[in-house]
Amino acid sequence: MAAQQDTSSTHGAEIKLPLPKQAGGKPLLEALKDRKSTREFGDNELNVKVLSNLLWAAFGLNRLDGHRTAPSARNWQEIDVYVALKRGLYLFDPHANVLRQVLAEDIRAATGMQDFVGTAPLNLVYVADLARMSASDRTEQRFYSAIDTGFISQNVYLFCASQGLATVVRGLVDRRSLAKLMQLRPQQRVIVAQTVGYPND
Fold first, then answer.
1. How far apart are the first and last CA of the chain?
2. Burial class (CB in 10 A: 0-12, 13-18, 19+), 11
3. What is the pLDDT of residue 137?
4. Per-residue confidence (pLDDT) for residue 6, from 0 to 100
């Protein structure tokens, strides 16, 4: 599939995303039937409309009260979605519907240990901010943040199945070195990463 033109509005270190499409796609049961993990990706970039729809499906706002497309324990909303693109690393801000640049360098290869992560167009990195969680027990914080990440990553799987995209969740990540590269605070923890792209047909 040919790469589509990037129609994003870029202001300084931000990428303003278009309003996400919240209707259409395959019926749920068909998306479930087609859901699968793939480790082969084309190198065509996702256009900004697809990226906006993907991020909304992952963990965007779906109600006026600030609730999201994936549940989170006690509504902590402790998971941040970082977006590693060729042009740099960004943090998804669902409230403003923008990507805020964190790094102006390509760190895709650092988001995992498999060869394909460095050339696939997009790697999502799910980061838990433990400071947002009122539970004092660290084991409980990690338990809930892992579950909440699972909800988000499954949303991405279903979106990709619906839209003909390829994806895989990856636990094989050097979390300590990646957190340092991403300049995360001590209270932030990398949970897993997820690669998304067009199938390598």
1. 8
2. exposed
3. 87
4. 39
**Mean per-residue pLDDT of the chain:** 92
Whether residue 80 is contained in a domain is answered as yes
Name residues whose C-beta falls within 8 Å of residue 170's C-beta, 6 or more positions apart in sequence. Answer: 111, 112, 114, 117, 192, 193, 194, 195
Strands 188-197, 122-129: pairing is antiparallel
| Spatial contact of 120 and 86, defined as CB atoms under 8 Å apart | no
pTM, two decimal places? 0.92
Structural domains counted in the chain = 1
**How far is Cα 99 from Cα 62, in angstroms, rounded to an integer?**
18
User: Which CATH number belongs to the domain containing residue 172 in this structure?
Assistant: 3.40.109.10
* 162 occurs within a structural domain: yes
Residue 145 lies in a domain: yes
- Tens of pLDDT, residue by residue over 46-60, are 999 999 999 999 999
pLDDT on residue 4: 36
